[in-house]
Write a structure and sequence with these properties.
25 strands; single chain; nine-stranded antiparallel sheet; mainly beta; globular; 4 helices
Length: about 425
Amino acid sequence: MKKVMFYFLIAFGMILPQNINGQNINDGSTLVSKATFLGKSDPLKDIINKVPTIDFDKVRNRKADHPKKFFPNFKNKTPTIAVNKDALPKGADPVWQSEGRNSTYVVEPIVDRDGIGSSNSNATPPDPSGAIGKNYFIQMVNSTLFQIFNKDGSAVSGPTNMSAFWSQFGKNSGGDPIVLYDQLAERWVFTEFPMNQDFLLVAVSVTDDPFGEWNAYEFQTPSFPDYPKYGIFENAYVVTTNEGGDIPVYCLDRQALIDGADDVNVARVTVPRIPNGPSFQVVTPLNVAGDIVTPEGNPMVIRMVDDAWGASAQDQIELWSVDLDWSDPQATTISKTSEIITASFDSYPCASETNFYFCIPQPNDQLTDGLVEVIMNQCHYRNFESHESIVLNFIVDASGDNLSGIRWMELRRL
């Protein structure tokens, strides 16, 4: 196992040293399984053309007449009780940018257009996901629509239900859709789970043209794969989920999926839960951006550790690396390679306790979701040759009085 060490942490303009312990190899059992090849799809353009145009007026009327559809996400979630009463910070976040921003620099978007919104989705919240390729941008929302746009923002297709795609393989569309673009292979990836079933669906485009054919797969999970998140590395598509117990990390044989192989290995390893930590614990996969790969070639996942949980003396970020060799997938291991001390943070900025994530009051007296105690999807890794960079963010208590704000960080290895 090669050690992964990121030497600087930049958070709101502050540079802080990190504290790195020796490698901590998780000796939990590795499970190896096979992804089932469902078949090659019809060209996506034919599927889109066969589906009737969605009447969003009817969708909105149906939503008004029926209860909103909520997904079984965030299972086992309950409020976190701080073990360490002396946890920092005491008061406002130490890197809170409370002053107004310098208006000298104004960044205007090149393209700004409406996509599929919450008023058109049949789910609350719509959980938008998007990816951009050489020629197109694809958006997906719960539950479950996708739409394809040119890079100038003009629509190339109308919103289409993913059930039209999965039904040709006898599968249903459940939710939590995510679209990815594999820049290294110039391929598109569709993912989601079917409702209330213990497996995940993955499809990879045969070429860089999303309107062409796709190779479709499913792979089994021990229990319902709640909150699936994906990352692309040169040797694997990485999937993390919430299944209760130790935290699963799945590695799918990327090249086999791209080739449309019948035989695709899946290696499952786990990261130990943090004692006295949140009831809902996940890790977040890194995603390779750009066309220069990582020196080690190993997939990586990341998570936060709040000192309020009592497992660490200081707030920190943990980086874990998967040692993966597809010639012997049973030998796959996952190791903690970095513990990066950060400026102190409070990862639970909930002003209203609800036993769920809608805990942040809004001016209309409603509550909005606050995805607490989790590093947000996606975390991007990029190799600039002069240095390597990981960018990430998560929500914190900015004011010390449960004002939710976003802490962003860049980790650099020089």
